[in-house]
Amino acid sequence: MYHHKVVEEEQEEYKSFSSSTASSTANDYEDDDDGDGDEDEDDEEEEESAIYGRIGSRERWMEHYSSSHRILLVGEGDFSFSLSLAKAFSSARNMVSTSIDSQQDLLKKYSNGLANVRDLEEMGCVVLYGVDATKMSQHFFLSTHRFDRIVYNFPHVGFLFPEANGCQIKLNKQLIKGFLRNAKVLLKKEEGEIHVSHKDGEPYNKWDLLKKAEKIGLALHESVPFRKDKYPGYGNKRAHGSSSDSSFRLGDCTTFKFKLAHSC
């Protein structure tokens, strides 16, 4: 989804979630820090498993994503992609879903945005507003967690210039670079993956996604075609201007999966 403005994080603004469900789920994520540096690792793994629903529940998959993964979704538009995963998992307790928009912007821009958020929160998802993808590793909540999968579908700064304009391409390259740097910090070292779904061909191939990932210390693990029909209910929104609630043409797209270079 499009990332059309930069929001300075204000910790106090985010401490109150929009529903008690989100608040209680966020509490579930909090680290149990009792100052004991020698805490037994097996007990820690068991506790994490309980929080993310791995104990006593059947693992469910949707494409590249599992209900046992801790998933961070970045740059969501109307939150329909997150909701598609949650419905497939029959839960969203393993998910944190973020948007650059405020709750007020969400209500103005998307006809189903608020309803999707309510459904997600009822299923246990932590929903965070005003999260800048290029600064998210400093976010007061996200900075304390590490994720198995970090997903950003169709990153874009918005239409400030024509799509093929050099200035527009430069801005999108900066967004990609900032996101990858921050996602690397929040990624689990073992088996963690950063997924970027991206349109193929001109001018998108000029964003140098693969080169930027390599320079940051990420290695391409796999690339697969992105199929929107694999995610029922997902709407790829323009997210910008008077047509923010309209879909944009996808054409041929690819999901690039990156891992930390040393783990490949």
Automatic annotation (TrEMBL):
<dbReference type="Pfam" id="PF10354">
    <property type="entry name" value="BMT5-like"/>
</dbReference>
<dbReference type="GO" id="GO:0070475">
    <property type="term" value="P:rRNA base methylation"/>
</dbReference>
<feature type="compositionally biased region" description="Low complexity">
    <location>
        <begin position="16"/>
        <end position="26"/>
    </location>
</feature>
<feature type="region of interest" description="Disordered">
    <location>
        <begin position="1"/>
        <end position="53"/>
    </location>
</feature>
<dbReference type="InterPro" id="IPR019446">
    <property type="entry name" value="BMT5-like"/>
</dbReference>
<feature type="compositionally biased region" description="Acidic residues">
    <location>
        <begin position="28"/>
        <end position="49"/>
    </location>
</feature>
<dbReference type="GO" id="GO:0070042">
    <property type="term" value="F:rRNA (uridine-N3-)-methyltransferase activity"/>
</dbReference>
<protein>
    <recommendedName>
        <fullName>25S rRNA (uridine-N(3))-methyltransferase BMT5-like domain-containing protein</fullName>
    </recommendedName>
</protein>
<feature type="domain" description="25S rRNA (uridine-N(3))-methyltransferase BMT5-like">
    <location>
        <begin position="72"/>
        <end position="238"/>
    </location>
</feature>
<dbReference type="GO" id="GO:0005737">
    <property type="term" value="C:cytoplasm"/>
</dbReference>
